Amino acid sequence: YLSLYENKNTPKEILLQRKMGKKIVVGLGISLDAINWFDSSVDISRNWKAQKNFIDDMIKLSQDIEDIFLILRFRNFKWKSLPYFKDSLTKIKEIENIHIADNYSESFNSYKYCANADLIIANFTSLADECLAYGKSLIFYDNTHNIKKIICETPGYLPKNMFCHNYNDIYEKSKFILSNNSNQAREEEKKKIDQMYYVKEKG
Fold first, then answer.
1. What is the Cα–Cα distance from 14 to 24, expressed in whole angstroms?
2. pLDDT mean for each 10 residues of the chain (203 residues)
3. Are 69 and 97 in contact (CB under 8 A)?
4. What was the pLDDT predicted at 202?
5. Residue 33 and residue 151: Cα distance in Å, rounded?
6. What Cα–Cα distance (Å) separates residue 100 from each residue in 62, 71, 148, 199?
């Protein structure tokens, strides 16, 4: 699906920010289906605090790196009215270069944002795998308040330098990837990704 939307049917906010010379960063948050604290808290990585930490880190990143426009996208936004998230969501409304893509009425909107991103910062989702297989620049947000290295220790998975275990990791790797000097350094990483996702054509 990503190939259908790269430079096609591009979301309006991306077109506007590109005209202003901004690079587009998409943050893929966790799927937070539990709408009460107790049900959420029993999940190590998909809980209220983990979601809030991710949002707050993305807010900070949008302020620390110049000339980016950061778009947050979640599988759903059912939790937006929870008081626990009020301060973070209010901050987003007050900052010009961060935005929540909350239109769920159209199909494949998440693909439209990811296909046109310069960098994707993702919690572990199947969409993140699709983005890597397609060749998008992506790093994993691989930590929460109560556990580090959630998925990077999986044997035979991706290069460990693609995983971020704290805010400094996120900042340094994002800044590097968005720089003009990152292409050559990431070539070896791309080879490993291609090997991981390569599927031999039938015939």
1. 7
2. 90 96 95 60 68 95 96 92 94 96 92 96 91 92 63 58 91 91 55 52 41
3. yes
4. 41
5. 21
6. 13, 6, 26, 34
Long-range contacts of 101-105 (CB under 8 A, 24+ apart): 101/11, 101/13, 101/71, 101/72, 101/73, 102/77, 104/76, 104/77
Six token digits for residue 93: 């409304």
* pLDDT, position 78: 86
DSSP 5-20: HTTSS--HHHHHHHHT
CA pair distance 58, 35, nearest whole angstrom: 22
Tally of residues, the chain: 203
DSSP-assigned letters across all residues of 26-60: EEE-------SHHHHHTSSSSSHHHHHHHHHHHHH
Instruction: State the pTM of this model.
Output: 0.84
Tokens of 139: 């790093």
Predicted confidence at residue 152, as pLDDT, reads 47
Backbone φ and ψ of 26, nearest 5°: -110, 125
DSSP string, 158-188: S-GGGEE-SHHHHHHHHHHHHSTTHHHHTHH
* Whole-number pLDDT of residue 203: 40
Write the CB contacts of 150 (distance below 8 Å, at least 6 apart in sequence): 44, 45, 124, 142, 143, 144
- What residue has token string 């778009």? 71
